[in-house]
């Protein structure tokens, strides 16, 4: 790359952008090493890296439980698979739209959010996403600890499983939960590279446990015939469609967190083509696979035991063979660690670091995530499929849909994918707005969120909805939140569009020879 002046952002032939120098930013209170733009020579993740990342994130016990819970709610296998497949294809769209900025500019999600929410306002979007990730971290850690409890119980005997009850759970289950929590904290303390290595190592193995569960159930149930003939309770009439809409929103909400913060991972992408291919190959295929396994296994469990057991650890505990139980659950524990680190620790670590860049490192952010994940009491969120889908997933899906609407509208329509890298780390730059806050993004997010979840009903919410006349919208919460915030942000921002987008080919951006091998450019 040709020598560049201080402040220059350089555009490479493949469209990726980097700063000429960052030394002058290091004194900024909005900068630290974890949040800094990744240099192009360090953006090395391949198509396989992203495929492996998605395999690691999707193949875990809560993903299985998500699909299995649809069977528990009364769907047959066709209805459940259809619901999950449509949901994953829909959520892939905003995920790829937000991923683009990470690869182009090498920035994580909270820095990306500064361009639209403001230097301080970005903390609202980042911390909202972070606290939800903490809840997911707790849920994943709880189910992983539960699997360890069952494994040790099969090996150690009834003394372990029938231990004294403390605060509503066996003390040995609390111990398993604590040890599993500690193991994950040790990995995250070693940094992002340790997470990447763990993902690549576990990705080819995480399917083993689920296939063992399915194989055992198929043999015991007498093949696919009895399982596929198991009827659903809803039929295809009004009862199904009443459950379908909120269930579809829950499927989307399951990955709505990642649809916001995929820049945390795509900032390391070797090219746009590599991250796009990796995600298209990764998310729909891995989630469809786990859905098929979960649906067939849960339906088979119903044939064998006369009830729909949607928690795979509890289903495995019913098996006669200790060897099958131990091998399957060990694989499931590895899968859960892989998913939890990638989906629920990496991103909130960046988000907490963004709130206090000079005080909170990536590792400290991970520790905060782990602590909040315990305080949120995940065993309560995971205890019932109705709470899991309609209350937990539905409510936060609507909130995050509103944030996604602002990001998509701002980056693709208002800013036309053009950002000033230096100003994303500079006080009183173009993204300072009013005191560090962009009121347009805040109003749009609030409007989208109220439309999406104002009518929340069921579970802990009033039967008539928090705001009764908005109750019909709650069944479509994520779509309503995204569309509402998207439209409001555009209406408020278009009068200012020229001021915020007139940054192409200006004095702070140059094009020139690239340091990367032209043969590596594929989009």
List descriptors:
mainly alpha; Hydantoin permease; 24 helices
Give me a quick take on this structure.
The protein is mostly helical. Helices cover 65% and strands 2% of the residues. It has a single domain (11-384), classed as Hydantoin permease.
Report what the structure shows:
This protein has a single domain, classed as Hydantoin permease (Orthogonal Bundle). The chain has 24 helices and 5 strands. It has helices spanning 47-58, 61-72, 77-105, 109-117, 122-156, 158-161, 171-189, 192-202, 207-221, 224-228, 238-254, 256-261, 263-266, 272-305, 312-316, 322-344, 346-355, 362-375, 378-381, 385-414, 439-453, 471-474, 477-493, 497-501; strands spanning 9-11, 17-19, 165-166, 169-170, 509-511. It has a 3-stranded mixed beta sheet, with no helix packed on it. The protein has a two-stranded antiparallel ribbon with strand order 3-4. A hairpin with a 5-residue loop joins strand 1 (9-11) and strand 2. Mean pLDDT is 81; it is low at 1-6, 503-508 and 512-523.
Topology:
Blueprint: E1 9-11, E2 17-19, H1 47-58, H2 61-72, H3 77-105, H4 109-117, H5 122-156, H6 158-161, E3 165-166, E4 169-170, H7 171-189, H8 192-202, H9 207-221, H10 224-228, H11 238-254, H12 256-261, H13 263-266, H14 272-305, H15 312-316, H16 322-344, H17 346-355, H18 362-375, H19 378-381, H20 385-414, H21 439-453, H22 471-474, H23 477-493, H24 497-501, E5 509-511
Parallel strand pairs: 1-5
Antiparallel strand pairs: 1-2, 3-4
Helix pairs in contact: 1-8, 1-14, 1-16, 2-3, 2-14, 3-11, 3-14, 3-20, 4-5, 5-7, 5-16, 5-17, 5-18, 5-20, 7-18, 8-16, 9-14, 9-16, 11-20, 17-18, 20-21, 20-23, 21-23
């Amino acid at each position: 790359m040709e020598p560049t002046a201080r402040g220059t952002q350089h555009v490479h032939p493949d469209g990726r952008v980097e700063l000429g120098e960052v030394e002058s930013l290091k004194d900024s209170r909005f900068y630290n090493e974890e949040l800094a733009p990744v240099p192009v020579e360090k953006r090395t993740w391949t198509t396989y890296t992203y495929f492996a990342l998605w395999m690691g994130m999707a193949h875990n016990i809560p993903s299985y439980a998500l699909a299995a819970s649809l069977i528990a709610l009364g769907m047959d296998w066709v209805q459940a698979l259809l619901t999950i497949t449509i949901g994953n294809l829909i959520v892939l769209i905003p995920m790829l739209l937000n991923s683009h900025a990470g690869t182009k500019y090498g920035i994580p999600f909270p820095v990306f959010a500064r361009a639209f929410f403001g230097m301080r306002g970005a903390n609202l979007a980042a911390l909202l996403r972070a606290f939800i990730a903490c809840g997911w971290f707790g849920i994943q850690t709880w189910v992983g600890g539960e699997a360890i409890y069952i494994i040790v119980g099969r090996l150690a005997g009834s003394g372990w499983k029938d231990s004294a009850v403390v605060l509503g759970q066996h003390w040995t289950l609390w111990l398993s939960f604590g040890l599993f929590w500690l193991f994950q904290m040790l990995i995250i303390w070693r940094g992002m590279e340790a997470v990447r290595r763990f993902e690549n190592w576990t990705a080819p193995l995480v399917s083993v446990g689920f296939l063992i569960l399915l194989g055992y159930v198929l043999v015991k149930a007498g093949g696919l015939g009895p399982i596929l003939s198991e009827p659903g309770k809803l039929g295809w009439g009004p009862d199904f469609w009443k459950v379908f809409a909120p269930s579809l929103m829950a499927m989307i909400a399951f990955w709505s967190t990642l649809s916001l913060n995929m820049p945390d991972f795509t900032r390391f992408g070797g090219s746009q083509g590599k991250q796009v291919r990796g995600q298209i190959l990764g998310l729909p295929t891995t989630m469809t696979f786990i859905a098929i396994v979960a649906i067939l296994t849960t339906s088979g469990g119903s044939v064998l035991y006369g009830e729909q057991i949607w928690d795979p650890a509890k289903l495995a505990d019913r098996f006669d063979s200790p060897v099958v139980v131990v091998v399957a659950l060990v694989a499931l524990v590895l899968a859960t660690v892989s998913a939890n680190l990638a989906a629920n620790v990496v991103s909130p670590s960046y988000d907490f670091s963004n709130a206090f860049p000079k005080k909170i490192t990536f590792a400290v952010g991970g520790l905060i995530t782990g602590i909040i994940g315990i305080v949120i009491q995940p065993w309560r969120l995971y205890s019932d499929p109705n709470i899991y889908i309609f209350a937990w997933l539905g409510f936060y899906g609507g909130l995050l849909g509103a944030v996604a609407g602002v990001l998509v509208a701002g980056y693709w329509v208002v800013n036309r994918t053009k950002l000033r890298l230096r100003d994303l780390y500079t006080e009183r730059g173009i993204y300072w707005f009013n005191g560090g806050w962009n009121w347009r993004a805040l109003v749009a997010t609030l409007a989208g969120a109220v439309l999406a979840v104002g009518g929340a009903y069921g579970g802990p919410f009033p039967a008539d909805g928090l705001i009764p006349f908005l109750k019909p919208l709650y069944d479509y919460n994520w779509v309503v939140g995204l569309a509402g915030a998207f439209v409001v942000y555009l209406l408020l921002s278009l009068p200012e569009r020229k001021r915020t987008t007139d940054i192409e080919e200006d004095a702070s951006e140059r094009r020139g020879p690239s340091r990367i091998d032209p043969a590596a450019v594929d989009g």
